[in-house]
Design a protein that fits this description.
Mean pLDDT of chain A: 95
Distance between the termini of chain A: 14 Å
Shape of chain A: globular
Number of domains of chain A: 2
Strand order of the largest sheet of chain A: 4-3-2-1-5-6-7
Largest sheet of chain A: 7 strands, mixed
CATH class of the largest domain in chain A: Alpha Beta
Helix content of chain A: 40-55%
Strand content of chain A: 15-25%
Oligomer: homodimer
CATH topology of the largest domain in chain A: Rossmann fold
CATH superfamily of the largest domain in chain A: NAD(P)-binding Rossmann-like Domain
CATH architecture of the largest domain in chain A: 3-Layer(aba) Sandwich
Largest interface: A-B, 50 and 50 residues
């Protein structure tokens, strides 16, 4: 299977490293080689029918600041048309204003009959229906395990392993940064501002933290789950959203007295789409600390199934992308 | 897909009800009907090429105490040869002395080229290699999601969704009864004997509780995971095993002072196979209360993935069996 990788930041580099590391195992298991035939970042691209060498790509990115030798002028159609490939790995940065350049890259690939595997939340939180229709019309797959919960296999678990179940609702912690802050407030009795500063110093929160703490990231993921699992047509702005700025020391301490913790919970069902701070009893799966993401999937037969994992990180995200690639390899085998 | 259901206790009845309830959805999704063409319990059997009516089977079992009109003399070969089917659903009671009648039923079906889906721990904790070799030799599948963790999709998650990962170790709570007892000891400051009695009164623990509290059930599941995921050849007696009878009120309360709880943890890797009480920090995923089963799967890329769900129950177990059936239906489609 020939791959074009659009985006060569931390995630794109992680994907290339993982493909290099796992290539032999996968080609043994599935009788197909994974080969990177194209790659681009925001200013350059590189293609080779015979396959690009991962180490060269990473070395060039590190030394020259760009992955390719050819300048990229922003024309996705032309660039993605310059080499043949089977699957586009779309890992450009998330843009929640208009989803670009992700949307253009994905539509170009899907409309040419190429599978798309992505970690890019923006396009799926904004234009899910259009993208999934393009995939369906062209008989290819659009896979996006990495968009929700990092390494946590929420989407493939729900859509594949639980395919015989009726999924009634999903509730969970979809943002590790908020969970870290709320947990530190509780554990150390810190005020919000101080817990946030600590998270920023540790590189867990961004300098501009609003994407996380105002619940935007969680809302994107909630919208994607609503679309992917409940077959709705929602964007992230359809999500009723309250962040964690208003969570006070006093509220955290009152909750503690009742053996509860405050967690930023996303709630997704065919009737409800909301992200807000909630009280969770200590000992309940959603009372988990740290930066993990966790969801509870409520179904008609299994009752509820909880799945948790690391919500972000180079190899964690590459892991989710790899699981989608493995599913494509498996389907190809038949 | 034609099914023979061996065993018609709570699980067998649950499976038949679920097939009745989900039949139409599945045949729409996969273009194949699930049809029950044979069923047996310990004293009777019934077959029909054209399919048996689930309601009639359940009604007869309830009113007459047996599922079939024909007496079953224990000759599995003959009974399982009396009708053609594609998949044996083996849900007879677990026997950890010699695995029978499960082993005989499974080998008969596998050697005739039939898939086997089972919830029966005994055969897989005692004779895994022989059974999986029979499946391989005959080009059929042996699926056993329901043997570990009830509705919790531990095996299919590890073997399918995480197929690209190297799984380094698995740790978890594999028995809900022990977890309930340990959690009540902590929450209410109860001595072991009293928490056990409470669990017995609630129907969570058996009259003879040793299968649960001495760690035998957990050890069976640990052995199955060792075989299925780490490709070892272990039986449950290879598992180093300490139960929870020796866990005192004092130990639980000391742990509490250190913000820890005691949990019966199974640890499985290529180098380690053990079930024993362990200290777990409060807030850690494995500090979970209630009767859930939970495991953490440690991998090279994802770090760790935690999955939890109900460990037992009629529909919970049927749910795991259904997920295996769905996987077979999906493979059949190609």
């Amino acid at each position: 299977m020939d791959l074009f990788i659009a985006g060569f930041g931390v995630i794109g580099q992680g994907v290339v490293e993982v493909i290099q590391q796992k290539g032999e195992m996968l080609s043994k298991a599935f009788g197909q080689r994974l080969r990177v035939v194209g790659v681009c970042d925001s200013s350059s691209y590189e293609t080779s029918k015979r396959g690009l060498d991962p180490s060269t790509l990473i070395r060039r990115k590190l030394s020259e600041g760009k992955v390719g030798t050819k300048p990229f002028d922003g024309d996705a159609e032309r660039m993605l048309g310059s080499v043949d490939y089977d699957t586009l790995i779309e890992v450009t940065p998330t843009n929640i204003q208009n989803g670009e350049p992700g949307v253009a890259n994905m539509l170009t690939a899907l409309n040419r009959g190429k599978h798309v595997v992505t970690s890019n939340k923006g396009p799926l939180a904004l234009r899910f229906k259009e993208l999934s229709r393009a995939a369906e019309k062209n008989g290819v797959q659009l896979r996006f395990e990495a968009t929700v919960g990092g390494a946590t296999p929420i989407i493939n678990l729900s859509r594949e392993l639980l395919r015989g179940e009726k999924i009634l609702s999903i509730r969970g912690i979809l943002n590790g940064t908020c969970n870290f802050i709320l947990n530190r407030m509780k554990e150390e009795g810190l005020p919000f501002a101080q817990a946030l500063r600590e998270a920023q110093d540790m590189g867990i929160a961004e300098r501009d933290p609003s994407y996380d703490i105002d619940g935007v990231d969680s809302a994107c993921k909630a919208a994607i789950l609503a679309n992917a699992i409940f077959h709705l047509d929602r964007t992230y702005s359809d999500v009723k959203r309250t962040g964690i700025r208003g969570v006070t020391e006093e509220a955290v301490s009152l909750a503690s007295e009742e053996k509860k913790v405050i967690r930023l919970i996303g709630e997704i069902s065919s009737k409800r789409l909301e992200v807000a701070p909630r009280l969770v009893p200590i000992g309940h799966p959603l009372s988990i600390g740290g930066t993990r993401n966790i969801v509870q999937i409520h179904t008609d037969l299994a009752g509820e199934i909880t799945v948790a994992g690391r919500g972000a990180g180079k190899f964690e995200t590459a892991s989710a992308i790899l699981s989608d690639l493995v599913a494509l390899l498996k389907d190809n085998q038949k």
